[in-house]
Structure formats: C-alpha cells, structure tokens
Design goal:
Helix content is 25%, strand content 30%. By secondary structure, the protein is of the alpha/beta class.
Length: 161
C-alpha cells in the first residue's frame, strides 16, 4: 500500500497538511491518528475540518468522545465525525455509545487514540502516525485500503516546507 512521509517544521506546516488532506478526502473514509499526547493529532484534524468548510469552533472531543461537523467534500455535503477515544475505558464503551454505526460508508470518521477501541473499531482506510521531532513533527500516512490509496494519490502537499 502507498505511503507518504514528511517533516512538519511547525504548526503552520501541520495546518498545511490538514488543508491538503481536506482536498483529498473521499466519502466514507476512516482515518486513524496515532501519536503521543502533543504530537499534533487535534491540530491536524482541526485544520482539516476548517479546510473542508466548517467555519465555527472545532473543539477536541476529549470529554464528549465524538463531535460531528457538516462540511463539503468534492463539492458535496458530507459529515466528518471527529473522535477522541483517549478517556475511553474499554472497547465495549465504543460499541455501547453506538459509534460503530457512524462508520457507514458515507461519514468521514477521524479517530484519535484508535487503539482504545481495538478490536471493535472498524479498520482504517488511512493511518496517520505523528511523532515529535525536535521543534516539529514527523508524519507518515499509510493507505490501508483502496479508498486510502486513492486519498494518497489525490494528496498534493507542498514539497518545499
């Protein structure tokens, strides 16, 4: 499966990647974000959601676990649901909350801390690994399905950052 790697020197580069990802999104995608606290998962997601057309505040769903946003993908209305599973105690909580039903092939589901819902969380189309590297971040995107591969093929991230 295809992959993409980059070094993000600062938050403006994380924002630029979020904008580029928003332009490459496809309906029904599931994106899993991996990285330690402070690695930039929420910053990336916030930039992506704003670039997809949401004009209001994008808050981290740390306590609500999920926040939906109405956006536009390829000129069509779409829903992005941002999950932060950090405070989840067990995978059963994911099922009990009914979140699995959101992965319906239409919604775009972005999941921070996906390991908290393993093994009941549907598999990702795109894995995003963020690691702190000095003042910046290293990022690797891995397509793990045909949808994820298509997203990476559509991704146009500025080469000079």
């Amino acid at each position: 499966m295809p992959s993409f790697k980059a070094h993000l020197r600062d938050e403006s580069h994380t924002t630029a990647l979020g904008v580029s990802l928003a332009r490459a999104l496809l309906p029904g995608m599931s994106i899993h974000l991996h990285g330690d606290l402070g690695a930039g998962k929420t910053a990336l997601t916030r930039a992506l959601i704003h670039a997809a057309g949401h004009h209001g505040h994008v808050k981290s769903p740390t306590y609500t676990l999920a926040e939906p946003y109405q956006v536009s993908v390829d000129g069509q209305p779409a829903t992005i649901i941002h999950y932060d599973l950090y405070r989840m105690g067990s995978p059963e909580e994911f099922l009990d909350a009914g979140f699995r039903e959101d992965f319906d092939g239409q919604n775009i589901c972005i999941v921070e801390w996906p390991e908290k819902a393993f093994p009941v969380l549907p598999p990702p189309d795109l894995r995003v690994n963020l690691t702190v590297a000095g003042e910046g971040r290293d990022v690797e995107l891995q397509g793990s399905s045909a949808l994820g591969s298509s997203c990476l093929q559509r991704l146009h991230f500025p080469a000079i950052l």
